[in-house]
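Anyone opening a protein record will find just a pair of labelled lines. The record below illustrates this layout.
***
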Amino acid sequence: MVDAVNKCPELAFLFPTDHDKQQQIAIGFFAKSDAGFQQCIGCINGMLLWIKKPTEADCEIAAVKAKKFFCERKKKFGLNLQAVCNAKGRFTDICIGHPDSTSDYLAFCTSSLKYKLECPRFLRPGLCLFGGNAYVNTSYMATPYKTCYSGKKDDYNFYHSQVRIGIKCAFGMLVNQWGILRKAIPNRISLQKTTAMAMCLCRLHNYCIDQCLAAEEPLCMDNFNVECYGGVSTKGTPGSMSQQS
């Protein structure tokens, strides 16, 4: 099933290349922005894809040691899932190619999306991604001001975060919808299969949004299974951001 979903052309992640379609995405974010930002083509951030400590065989294939997969801040092993979403929380680009100790900026720098964004005339003039301080401010990436606690720059940061939080909400919907992401994926499932499964779930996430099939509440059996195996329950908080995002 995972292979079938990932190979389905109708479910592919398509960052729009047509300037009119890019403008439609920006209009969606404009409607959500109290400051009237008209420039946002997408929100970008990284999420920890929670896994058990990788096996020696997986580490050998990945050409990195197991400690590279360990996130010191969250005290978990994982992969860096880098994503861009539109105003509806629909993913327009996904990249899973690094262990979680890799910074979001480095993961972005090695992505095919960065290469596309740097191509002349790829983006409609005046549009850019909205990202956090993990990224670098460029002509195609708007980031917050650093160490600002008052004044116009702080106001800008507030309204910037109001738009940028869309990607965290998208991660919350993703993890809330698919309980397997709320616990560590067993290391008997290889890193390659874990990546394929995560890509599959992100595609199904988009399908559910397109079909208006977002679950109002996780299944009771799903929450029970997650809690029994040390996962994060979202019982009573449908659609909320996961602790993993």
